[in-house]
Amino acid sequence: DAGVIQSPRHEVTEMGQEVTLRCKPISGHDYLFWYRQTMMRGLELLIYFNNNVPIDDSGMPEDRFSAKMPNASFSTLKIQPSEPRDSAVYFCASSTGTPDTQYFGPGTRLTVL
Amino acid sequence: GENVEQHPSTLSVQEGDSAVIKCTYSDSASNYFPWYKQELGKRPQLIIDIRSNVGEKKDQRIAVTLNKTAKHFSLHITETQPEDSAVYFCAASMSNTGKLIFGQGTTLQVKP
């Protein structure tokens, strides 16, 4: 198995632009998680899905952030409009059950200028 | 809500010494406690985990202990090596959810 796949690996954009991050979970995993990591705030859970349904989005910082999971093998995290304070590494993770081991993707390093 | 406190934030040891990282959690219903290692620029990767029906678990040089009464758990690394240098995160599950609440991380430096 290729593990959790994320794209792009790096994204540099200007303030106000729309950013879309993509994730493909490990096949057979029912849970998908989106995290944001910064030096100041550590590893924060933004939202998670179970069987493609959003279960808890209480970590989404504001309405500029949205996430979707149209099918079991694909999810997106969208920021519109982006701001410099959104600069961070965004990780996607998946797991087979709850609670259970979460396998992280390589992350997307986002820089908003 | 659940809160996980991790100490120390940084730890420096000499190669061959032991390292101990401690975490406390607030939700008494938490039942799963993983530890992740994150090397610079890489993703967090699970190194060991423990469930609440077990008090201790060991895997070669790594061990984790859990005290449910006190609501704390610890990571023990023996015979440390330079390649153990990384950031280590503890986490605790929130009851009846798939969420993991992560500690703030411990930067471990193993000096040769």
Order of helices and strands of chain A: EEEEEEEEEEE
What's the gyration radius of chain B in Å? 13 Å
Helix content of chain B: under 10%
Question: Largest sheet of chain A, if any?
Answer: 7 strands, mixed
What is the helix content of chain A?
under 10%
User: Unreliable segments of chain A (pLDDT under 50, ≥5 consecutive)?
Assistant: none
Shape of chain A: globular
Strand content of chain B: over 45%
Which spans of chain B of ≥5 residues are poorly predicted at pLDDT below 50?
none
Most extensive interface, chain pair and sizes: A-B, 22 and 20 residues
Provide structural commentary.
The complex is a heterodimer of chains A (113) and B (112). By secondary structure, chain A is an all-beta fold. Chain A has no helices and 11 strands. Chain A has strands at 5-7, 10-13, 19-24, 31-38, 42-50, 53-56, 65-71, 74-79, 88-95, 103-104, 108-112. In chain A, the strands form 2 sheets. In chain A, strands 2, 4, 5, 6, 9, 10 and 11 form a 7-stranded mixed sheet that branches. Chain A has a 4-stranded antiparallel sheet with strand order 1-3-8-7, with no helix packed on it. The mean pLDDT of chain A is 94. Chain B is mainly β. Chain B is 0% helix and 56% strand. Chain B contains no helices and 11 strands. In chain B, strands 2, 4, 5, 9, 10 and 11 form a 6-stranded mixed sheet that branches. A 5-stranded antiparallel sheet of chain B has the order 1-3-8-7-6, with no helix packed on it. Chain B is globular, with a radius of gyration of 13 Å. Chain B starts with a strand and ends with a strand. The relative contact order of chain B is 0.34. The mean pLDDT of chain B is 93.
